[in-house]
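Checklist before submission:
- one chain only
- standard amino acids only
- sequence pasted in full

Submission:
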Amino acid sequence: MGVTVDVEKKGSTLLASYLGFHSDFATITRIYKFLAKVGWENHCEATRKIWIPDGKKNGRWVKPDECVLHDNDGLFGLQLNVLEKHYKDKPLLQFFSRAFGVKSNPSLDDYCKLWKGSETSGHRLLHDECFAFWRFVVKHKSSKKEQIHSDNLLKLPVDSGADGIMLFDKHDVFIADDLQLKDLFAQSSSRPLFVWYPLPSSPSLPWTMLLELYRKVGVRMISESVKKAELSLTNTSRLKEVNFRDIMNAKELVRLILGFLAGSSIKMEADKRHEAVQCLLNLTVLETSEPIAVGYTLLFSSGKTLEVRSSRMCRWDRDSSKFFKQKMNKSAGRKNLLQYATYFSEAIAEGVLWEMEDHISSLSELIKLTFLLKFNEDEIGFLMKSKNLQVFAEDEEFLSAAFPTKKRHGTLA
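Returned file contents:
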């Protein structure tokens, strides 16, 4: 008569085949629980559908690959059907995973598709949305996945303030590795320029790891992306030539630089380091009462540029072997002294190490400190020992030849 006796084996298949005729959520749930209990396996494409309820009597059937068991970050409510929202029973969720192959959580591909949607929609992201996305990406990063990110992530988040996070072409956003340049361009740009990162930094999304990932997908450092132009002085007739050896204890400055060049980070040979500091000794130093203008140009992928101007207190023109310095106002206070020390040390370090950019910052910091110490011989000696820097016999001979007298030179200009 065709009556099904083996309910668990044949009856489960029959029940599953009639699932599509139901729309009552309670009925469908009972059938799912029975199928889960008997270990039903889905071998028919027609039954590879999952019911997503909309109320008690309405809903729709969807494919398993359009579903996910969990969405811990709450990002995929519009992209995927999150089953735990509808089916609270844990064994049922396990059943959907086993019988239908529903993935437990959104995959990397899902996250990439989600970001693509944000790129094309143009809407601003909430902080929590952006944080959750990049936390997942950083947590699951690998060399292979970084290549996927590089190919798929065309727009990246920028710091847009309280109105939400905007996305811009990754070739037109920058990492603010130079805070002075950041301030200059941020004040002059009509739109945000610098990539977003969480503040304060979170253990689950350290900003250092996020910035490293940004670099690997193609974001440039602002310091590497600008062209610097030394602008001419407006009134060259008021330039006054001064003796480099008279404006400071130049011998101790040269000693410090020689020790740095001989140190373990560079290990420059004696003749090379003597040549490097000789260009410093050959400088014509010109003093002016006005600030020294500097221009910076930032080039975007569209071909457009953003130009800003700033002023510095010192500048080394290698082509002409001239060092321009603004006359220091000694009565302007400690802040002015620190600014002068900063600009002076940067100009000297950039001039000496123009072919070794990776070491400019370290040398600049040392020179700045010795400037603030007024190039005191004893204090510089202690500083060099504390940094494990020393000069050798051939350096002492060079110093004696360059500075033949023992006379102590003047104070800072």
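Reviewer check: The CA atoms of residues 67 and 100 lie 10 Å apart.
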